[in-house]
Write a structure and sequence with these properties.
Elements: E1 2-10, E2 14-23, E3 28-32, H1 39-46, E4 54-59, E5 62-63, H2 68-72, E6 75-78, H3 90-100, H4 105-119, H5 134-146, E7 152-156, H6 164-177, E8 182-186, H7 190-196, E9 199-204, E10 207-212, H8 214-221, E11 225-231, H9 234-242, E12 247-249, E13 253-254, E14 261-267, H10 274-283, E15 287-294, H11 298-326
Parallel strand pairs: 3-8, 3-9, 6-7, 7-8
Antiparallel strand pairs: 1-2, 1-4, 4-5, 9-10, 11-14, 11-15, 12-14, 13-14
Length: about 325
Amino acid sequence: MIRVSELTKRFDKLAVDRISFEVARGEVVGFLGPNGAGKTTTIRVLTGYHPATSGKAWIAGHDVEQASLQARQQIGYLPENVPIYPELRVVEFLRYRAALKGVPAKQRRLAVDRAMQKADIQDVARKLVGNVSRGYRQRVGLADALVANPPILILDEPTSGLDPNQRRRIKQVVRDLAAEHTILFSSHILGEVQDVSSRILVIHRGTLRADGPPDELVLRAVGRSVHVTARCTPGQLDEVVRGTPGLRSEAAEPAKQDGYATCQGTAEPGADPTQALGDRLLAAGIAVRELRVSVPTLEEYFTLMTEGSDRHEEAALAAVAAPEVHS
């Protein structure tokens, strides 16, 4: 439904640098990145607001540059700041928007009723758009995106500025919409993306850094944390843990309870060393009080892919520059 190939957008500086990805029919894909990463620029190219500097993008098979009108007819777009006419009632605003989007006159009432039901805003239909809360305003914007019943929804920060209850409602609406629409969903709130998305894209400094199911990406890149407390000396525990394949550990320390030691470790990405560690502890005759495995969060993964990659690149540049400085 959405296909992007080597997409590049340059303003005064490079905003998006040769990114490529696809979103299949029925997918809900989270689009992640820090401020200035290129998310909104990419979305604006897809929705026809900006032309690409180079590369291609297709919406439901339509080239967004060569067949812009046909491509935009396939999209329902919710921008971060919802444009509204505050002096119109919600139902009047949606009927006006339906007319602009080419919904036939005989079908507009049904189209508006359906969009309001999907966005769960029937109870404010007769209120002025300017008088509803921010949460309802976001949902009015979502109803606007839905009023022409497009197959694709592109949602840019749909929960920005909302309180927890309002965010919960928007998340539930997005989950419900996933049964009928392909969704590209951008948000700074990582837990929300993980809750509603089957796949995530991570963009940083204009380049695509990751693409895949969130749980798989996190475990592959970060690894699980392993905590063990056992009845032995720190030296004995250190020897067993350090010899476990696929496990990087810190030095063991005495536990709060006398006669016990504790140790923290990190499983290498993609590895699960807990069975091997348990076998080694058993073979050594060490009684285990606790063996706990913690799964990393999407936030930890996001930090690794953004701030972590920045630190890695800075270190690499410093290493290259060091001999020149020395000479």
